[in-house]
């Protein structure tokens, strides 16, 4: 109970966000147009006309590129704070980041040599 005052602002934000979601969803349901037309029933693809079914299979290369993107995105999440605190962390931080980056770079070189980056 002694930490409750520290968490009170977060509780207020969560309550306000929840109330906003509920109120805006209700207002959208209440005030929004309800007539379904053929245009509204079609799939929306970023302003372009839809092409083909949404149930088509993707190439395995697509998943490999997506997986590589996620891996290097997560790597960037760790690199940014390290770069910000580089002077404070000094050599121990550099060594730890080198240990972290070594398998990532080895994996990148391996993927590159195996041709995972080539789309054709």
Descriptive overview:
By secondary structure, this protein is an all-alpha fold. Helices cover 72% and strands 0% of the residues. The protein has helices at 4-31, 38-41, 60-84, 86-114. Helix 3 packs antiparallel against helix 4. The longest helix has 29 residues, at 86-114. It starts with a helix and ends in a 6-residue tail after the last helix.
Strand-helix topology:
Elements: H1 4-31, H2 38-41, H3 60-84, H4 86-114
Distance between the termini: 60 Å
- Percent range for β-strand residues: under 5%
Determine Rg (CA atoms, Å): 24 Å
Number of strands: 0
Oligomer: single chain
- Main pleated sheet: none
**Cα shape:** flat
User: Which blocks of ≥5 consecutive residues have pLDDT under 50?
Assistant: none
Order of helices and strands: HHHH
Portion of residues in helices?
A: over 70%
Number of helices: 4
Structural class assignment = mainly alpha
The pLDDT mean sits at 86
Please supply descriptive tags for the structure shown above.
120 residues, flat, 0% strand, 72% helix, single chain, mainly alpha
Summarize the structure in short.
The chain is mainly alpha-helical. 72% of the residues lie in helices and 0% in strands.
């Amino acid at each position: 109970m002694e930490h409750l005052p520290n968490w009170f602002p977060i509780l207020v934000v969560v309550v306000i966000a929840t109330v906003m979601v509920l109120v805006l969803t209700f207002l959208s349901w209440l005030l929004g147009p309800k007539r379904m037309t053929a245009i509204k029933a079609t799939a929306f693809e970023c302003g372009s006309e839809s092409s083909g079914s949404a149930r088509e299979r993707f190439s395995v290369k697509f998943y490999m590129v997506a997986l590589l993107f996620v891996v290097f995105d997560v790597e960037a999440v760790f690199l940014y704070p390290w770069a910000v605190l580089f002077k404070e962390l000094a050599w121990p931080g550099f060594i730890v980041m080198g240990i972290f980056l070594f398998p990532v770079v080895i994996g990148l070189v391996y993927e590159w040599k195996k041709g995972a980056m080539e789309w054709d």
